[in-house]
Task: inverse folding
């Protein structure tokens, strides 16, 4: 059972380049999330998807777009990367949306933007 | 406003001594609280969760936490630290529909 799988694990980009971070879960979860983790700031929500076909902004959505491709997959796109987007990105999934179920996390994508 | 506060950014203990990682919360929702551990270059792994059943919650690897409504606390404890416990720990609370509130993390160092 793979859980939540993120690709790639590492990436270096130049300012202005674009890229898509991929996430897939095999737990039949309805809800999926993208977070960024920066030192001393915990995890901050970028976007989430309550169910297939829906997406909503989180705390720090500027500069990002997302696609819920199907129930399993939720991708995050940086259209024009900026150095401020250097971070570790985590995808997570869970059942439902009441906030009383734990999230399951992938191992992250470490992104550096030069 | 909802908030989760981890009171210590760094904690150092000697191997074999007790661990205490402190977390306070504030929420207008009926609380659901979680502790996660993050090892280097890994994602967050669930240690335990509180969702209004027993106030003393036992988790994996010998960790446990007690929900104290009067103190708005959910501290994580372990009787005897092991070297493999060295990691970063996150307290997470329910922030509303589809929302979770993350503490800023406590880095645990275990000294030989």
Result:
């Amino acid at each position: 059972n793979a859980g939540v799988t993120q690709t790639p694990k590492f990436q270096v980009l130049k300012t202005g380049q674009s890229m898509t971070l991929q996430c897939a879960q095999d737990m039949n979860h309805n809800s999926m999330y993208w977070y960024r983790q920066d030192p001393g700031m915990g995890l901050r929500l970028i976007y989430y998807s309550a169910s297939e076909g829906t997406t909503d902004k989180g705390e720090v959505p500027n500069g990002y777009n997302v696609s819920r491709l199907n129930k399993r997959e939720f991708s995050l796109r940086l259209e024009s990367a900026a150095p401020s987007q250097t971070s570790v990105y985590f995808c997570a999934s869970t059942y439902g949306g009441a906030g009383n179920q734990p999230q399951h996390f992938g191992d992250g994508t470490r992104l550096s933007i030069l | 406003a909802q908030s989760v506060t981890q009171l210590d950014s760094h904690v150092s203990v000697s191997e074999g001594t007790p661990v205490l990682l402190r977390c306070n919360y504030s929420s207008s929702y009926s609380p659901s609280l979680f502790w996660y551990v993050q090892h280097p270059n890994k994602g967050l792994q669930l240690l335990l969760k509180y969702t209004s059943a027993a106030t003393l919650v036992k988790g994996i690897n010998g960790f446990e936490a007690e929900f104290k409504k009067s103190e708005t606390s959910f501290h994580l404890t372990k009787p005897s630290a092991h070297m493999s416990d060295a990691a970063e720990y996150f307290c997470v609370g329910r922030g509303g529909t589809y929302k979770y509130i993350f503490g800023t993390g406590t880095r645990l160092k275990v000294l030989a």
Remarks:
- Chain B has a mean pLDDT of 93.
- Residues 10 and 92 of chain B are 17 Å apart (CA to CA).
